[in-house]
Design a protein that fits this description.
Structural class: alpha+beta
Number of helices: 6
Oligomer: single chain
Number of strands: 6
Shape: globular
Radius of gyration: 15 Å
Helix content: 25-40%
Strand order of the largest sheet: 1-2-3-6-5-4
């Protein structure tokens, strides 16, 4: 369970003004510097780096995301975009090109993304809240239907840390 102080901080207006510009860049910088072994955001939330293909440019795009890994090896990622009114670019990339790469704790594997339906999101609510504990605050602030994707490994999940239920 995420500490209430973290939830309060992560949903404050001041943090939401700065975090979307600073946190992803900082995470990617440290991730590259450590060869994919560290992500500063993992201190607070389970975090992965999702690599997609830009839907317009065709260029590779890497984005650190809060995620929840299930016992079956699938990841759930939430396109909350810090509660902003527009969908994050990575979610549009996945809609148009659902093949991507997930990197976590220095290991990578290929995944296929599938957008969850409203009914599936409701059934997966516990996992959504494990990925992004402040989902409800972000959803209310954004005023949009937040996209949630299930990432299913195409290649075998890397050995190492056991998946969480």
């Amino acid at each position: 369970m995420t500490h209430p102080v973290l939830v309060r901080l992560a949903t404050s207006r001041a943090v939401l003004r700065v975090a979307p510009h600073v946190l992803p860049r900082w995470d990617l910088f440290v991730h590259r510097l450590t060869g994919g072994r560290l992500l500063p955001s993992r201190i607070a939330l389970d975090t992965i780096v999702l690599s997609t293909t830009g839907h317009r440019s065709g260029a590779p795009r890497s984005t650190p995301l809060a995620a929840h890994r299930a016992a079956d090896g699938t990841w759930l990622v939430v396109g909350s975009n810090f509660g902003r009114s527009h969908h994050p670019a990575w979610s549009t990339n996945l809609l148009l090109r659902p093949h991507a790469t997930v990197t976590a704790e220095g290991r990578s594997w290929q995944v296929t993304a599938r957008l969850l339906t409203a009914r599936e999101k409701e059934r997966q609510r516990d996992r959504v809240l494990l990925a992004v504990p402040f989902y409800d605050v972000y959803a209310a602030r954004s005023g949009r239907d937040i996209r949630v994707f299930c990432l299913t490994p195409v290649t075998a999940a890397p050995a190492g840390r056991p998946a969480r239920a």
